[in-house]
Amino acid sequence: MDAVHEHPALPASAQALVVTNQTVGPLYGERLVNTLKHRYSVVHTLELPDGEEHKNWQTLNLIFDALLQHGCDRKTVLFALGGGVVGDMTGFAAASYMRGVPFVQVPTTLLAQVDSSVGGKTGINHPLGKNMIGAFYQPRLVVCDLATLDTLPERELSAGLAEVIKYGPIADMEFMAWQEGAMEALRARDRAALAHAVRRSCEIKAWVVGQDERESGLRAILNFGHTFGHAIEAGMGYGVWLHGEAVGAGMVMAAELSMRMGLVDQAFVQRLRSLIARAGLPVKAPVLDAADNAGRYLELMRVDKKAESGEIRFVLIDGPGKAVLRAAPDALVRDVIDACC
Ligand code: NAD
Ligand code: GLY
């Protein structure tokens, strides 16, 4: 992070705004600002409230307030310093302020380093659905400093591992096998193991996004486990289950559905469940409604962005290492929910 100012991809401007939150700002804000001062005459900072429950219009507006109050012009560079919440909101602010200003991602969670900072999906939540308002808008640069992961709470590290795990079943079984051998090292924050996990995850994500930036097809596979997962996040109330935790349980449900659709065998589902559990993630999904749990899941999943005309489409594993997007009969989905909660 300390040499960011030397990077040739940094856009030229007089002003920069570092957007961070009340947790990450005190840890790394000064370091980033000091670096950027070598490159920009004026560097402003904005600390947002911390938490998924703040990923909304009200918080987004704080970024626009700061940009306007500081008289920022359309060359002003926004820096997102934090996890996926700060990154998604800052990116969306950059996409819309004066119809687009440059932005740079400086992800400080494992989840953000392996997934959310790469690929240009930006946005906020709506009370009725996760990430429902947003834009595709690419950062000019993504700066991953593995040292920032040293201060990450253990629960957040596990949440990030969910997004690392997803890349195996959808695209690269060798990567899944490597994770099976490296899970203890990853959880112990071994730098070499983390470096490989971040590099390989970003390679796979870039390979997918490079072919389908706007998610007209292939990119949807990156949402393995997310259809069930988003229902868990929204159903429990944003911030109660971490995004990665919901994806962890969601991947077990999606694998179970794949098995019931005849695409993978029980041994594969068990192998994936075991890896998810070893990452410190939940493998059992929560009950969202005691009276009609499956009905509540289905209701929430119909708001998913992959749904078409109210028909839910799931990312399923079509043999280990390959994913497909498919609809599934409600009765089968109900069985999976009953079995996994
Ligand atoms: P987060 O941004 O809420 O960060 C998790 C917690 O860790 C927060 O409390 C944060 O303040 C704290 N934190 C961040 N860095 C830290 C550090 N180095 N040391 C100590 N604490 C630190 O959550 P997240 O898991 O990074 O991101 C989840 C979000 O990302 C969700 O909103 C999800 O929808 C989104 N997401 C987006 C994409 C995408 O493609 N844009 C992909 C996956 C997830
Ligand atoms: N995290 C899913 C995607 O970027 O498409």
How would the global form be characterised? globular
State the name of the first-level CATH class of the largest domain: Mainly Alpha
What is the CATH homology-level superfamily of the largest domain?
Dehydroquinate synthase-like - alpha domain
Widest sheet: strand ordering: 2-1-3-4-7
Helix tally? 12
Uncertain stretches? none
Distance between the termini: 42 Å
Helix content: 40-55%
Give the number of DSSP strands: 9
Query: Based on helices, strands and strand pairing, what is the structural class?
Result: alpha/beta
Largest sheet composition: 5 strands, parallel
By CATH, the topology of the largest domain is: Dehydroquinate synthase-like, alpha domain
The ordered H/E elements are EHEHEHEHEEEHHHHHHHEEH
The total domain count is: 2
CATH architecture of the largest domain: Up-down Bundle
Mean pLDDT equals: 96
Strand content: 5-15%
Radius of gyration: 20 Å
Ligands in the model, by name, code or SMILES, are: nicotinamide-adenine-dinucleotide, glycine
Structure characterization notes:
It is a single chain. The chain has 341 residues and is an alpha/beta fold. The chain contains twelve helices and nine strands. Strands 2-1-3-4-7 form a five-stranded parallel sheet, with helices on both faces. A two-stranded antiparallel ribbon has the order 5-6. It has a two-stranded antiparallel ribbon with strand order 8-9. β3, α3 and β4 form a beta-alpha-beta unit. The longest helix is centred in the middle third of the chain and has 21 residues, at 191-211. The site of glycine has 6 residues, from loops.
